[in-house]
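May I ask you to comment on the folded chain given beneath this request?
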Amino acid sequence: MSDMEFTLKLTRQQDYRFNVEFDLAGVPDLQLDEPAPLGAGEGPNASRLLAAAVANCLSASLLFCLSKFKQEPGEIIANVKGKMIRNDKGRLRVGGFDVDIRLGQTVERLEHCAEQFEDFCVVTDSVRNGIPVSVRVLDAAGQLIHQSES
């Protein structure tokens, strides 16, 4: 598999709790769960995981830019506020994220990086522009029972 592809495996454990196996050696599994009343809240749900991915990508992208200019920002703290909305069919959707990134110390070249780092954030730009998702559902015998493309 190339660096341009990755594969994760999700397995239902109980109710709405799923175990996620990553395709990275030494990386522990992650538990996902829905908050009550659907789940038991024993892990983050997909919306929170998406928020974490956006904030992590932005923080890492900013750090990468600063590092290129030999700047050490110290501690980086990103706070994300997610907003849930209902679409025109009444379905719950992620309506947006507000991300605040705070650097632990003053750095030079911050203006230059501030102008560019978002463009290099793979996740945030992908989310902003929409990500195509194809879906297949197979029954227990492996027969295709549903397929969609976006």
The chain has three helices and seven strands. The longest strand covers residues 92-103.
